[in-house]
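Example (one chain per record):
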Amino acid sequence: MKLRYVIMLTLFIALPFLVSGYTGDVTAVYKQPILTGADQTALYVPYLKGKKVGMLVNQTSIIGNKSIVDSLLALKVDIKLIFGPEHGFRSNASNGAKVVDEIDAATGIPIISLYGKKKKPTKKEMDAIDIMVFDIQDVGCRFYTNINTLCDVMEACAEFGKELVILDRPNPNGYVDGPILDMKLKSGIGKFPIPITHGMTIGEFAQMINGEGWIPGKLKCRIKIIPVKHYAHDMDYTLPVGPSPNLNTQQSVLLYPALCLFEGTIVSQGRGTYMPFTVLGSPDLKGIYSFSFTPVSIPGKSETPLHQNQVCYGLDLRNYDTAPTRKAGKVDIKLMMDMYKVYPFKEKFFDFKLSKQMLNIDILAGTTLFKEQIIAGKSEEEIRKSWEPGLSNYKKMRTKYLLYP
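Predicted structure:
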């Protein structure tokens, strides 16, 4: 009986690893501290030596607690150009703000913005380097633009014959959930036919971009991935550095898959406060909720937030337990369902024409059905059922590209 129990327990632990295609030591993964790709300098610094290097990095690109640029320069790596994504290399630009080229004051290296007049490096810039390094912390969501930048840089590398070295990092929202993007709704916050949370690291996603032919012209990028060590998708991972100005706490990162959907509503997610993506509120909710906050202009963070200088009433989610939905592998759509039910002016809730700060909820959700289902009062079970068979098909496709259990 005891032997049977041991066998069953072993199979229970091993099953997710077997399904993912992972063939390493199942139990050892959970016993050691996580090491990001960047932390494992012995695996890539010798490979970069003697080459002219371009680096697509931001404030999350660290080795230990030090900027990877500073660290690699100290190790005599020849960094010629730094490329910056949304928010810039030093992450001092507001969401959606165009970022300009500049010279990095600390190193004297030119910084080329890929979130301004252009989205990918030019031939001249690619000719100035031998190899490109990508090291940016992602948060695992379709509408977080790092995966778009990844694809753009892969396209440039493929066009001009450069290899891309990806220093992989864990995905703090490593589960798979949400409707698959209807490509008729393709936009700057949704370029790929994937769910809201895609359940992949940047390295794995790069393999999917290549494998599914998502680079224009079906080009293939030559990539070298330095994988995360001692990592599995179901692990909790606390980010050592906030990935963007408005994701400044671990709680905001974990709530982001659900709360970013509120950007398609008249409800503030706390932009213009020092607790963004951990609160929800609107002036219209006075008398319904007692908690309140007032969005204000914060340069470099949120300069013209929704409901600026107005008292918003709503929910304080700073201590909200995200574990149940995350462990169940679900985006917490019930937050929106519940708030819509109590909102006094329902005709305003999804009317993005009321404010320049609001986005179209259809583009964020990736489907026109979601808004209709919320308005119609559909149950969570009914909404989730409508995501099939697309979600299951995606999960099956995803297994081809996994590096981790």
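Caption: Confidence is low (pLDDT under 50) at residues 1-23, 92-96.
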